[in-house]
Amino acid sequence: METRHFTRREFMKVGTILAAGLSLPVGAARLFAAGLEKLVKTTRVVWIQGQSCSGCSVSLLNSMDPEPVDLLTQIVSLVLHQTIGAAQGETFMQTLNRVAQEGDYILVVEGSIPLEMPQACVIGGRTLEEILVQLIPKSKYVIAVGTCAAFGGIPAAEGNHTHAGSVRKFMEKHHFSVKNCLVNCPSCPAHPKSVVGTLAYLAGHGYPDVVPETLTPRMFYGHSTHDECPRYHYYERKLFAKYLGDPEGCLFKLGCLGPITYTRCPHRQWNNGVNWCIRASAPCIGCSSPYFAQRKDFPFYRKGELQHAVNYTENERKGEK
Length: 321
Ligand code: SF4
Ligand code: SF4
Fold this sequence. Notes:
- The chain is of the alpha/beta class.
- The protein folds into two domains: 8-219, Rossmann fold (3-Layer(aba) Sandwich), CATH 3.40.50; 223-321, Cytochrome-c3 hydrogenase, C-terminal domain (Cytochrome-c3 Hydrogenase, Chain A, domain 2), CATH 4.10.480.10.
- Helices cover 38% and strands 12% of the residues.
- It contains 13 helices and eleven strands.
- The chain has a five-stranded parallel sheet with strand order 2-1-3-7-9, with helices on both faces. Strands 4-8 form a two-stranded antiparallel sheet.
- A hairpin with a 2-residue loop joins β5 and β6.
- α3 (55-61) crosses α9 (192-205).
- The longest helix has 17 residues, at 26-42.
- Residues 225-226, 229, 231-232, 235, 250-252, 256, 258-259, 278, 284 line the site of one iron/sulfur cluster.
């Protein structure tokens, strides 16, 4: 296949699209463009999947700016990926060992980690735990992509037998420092703009400003969905939607978790800006929250919605599950 090389103008275009999609100021476009250029030239990415459905990888392949082929062949030097990488079987394991020896890469982890049942996640005959203990110390940065890696997510739901947990819990268990190293990019799945933007920022400018409690970059996760919701004016006037799919009214009484969920969904939306949950008249189910999918008694869509939402909000405020 003939390879194409991005020009500076094209990097600027992608940087501008990334920044505009997140309503970031014009200076952010230049930051992203410079970061993308550095990502191409000097930064290798190792992507490891643990307890995951591969949804975050599929989401990355839905990237439109840049398109997936450009992203994976021209921008991100993806040296390892279990499902979309060329190296498989013995070659994959040999590459893993070589890369781990060389160091100097950004490690992306997708999926949670079975903290008390290492044998529940095995890659090429080795446990994920062994592989991460090998890869983390030699990495420049670690990105936990998706809510499973960032906070535990669906595999960590109440009652799971593997004690699935986040990358942060794994690093703390093994006494690896998360400070200025680990960045969480939650959402189920992670949004391609957040992943590409974080990679570009790390490559070009280093560790970003993060929310200390969640280690999420403020530029992508600094505002709640509620703060920027197009239905906020209904909320203020206490005009509530009456049924799922109601095109009018705030969805709070139908269980919307927008007030406690931090993403730029109202700006960048999904599928290249085609739509997002609230525009489709469905409540935000809090997919980027640390509490997503944790409790058995808290289904995504609920009856007695107001009470549940209030309890959930109160518990989160008090730091309880
Ligand atoms: S629909 Fe949800 S996010 Fe939007 S204003 Fe209502 S509660 Fe907030
Ligand atoms: S609106 Fe809420 S549930 Fe929907 S994608 Fe955004 S954070 Fe996730």
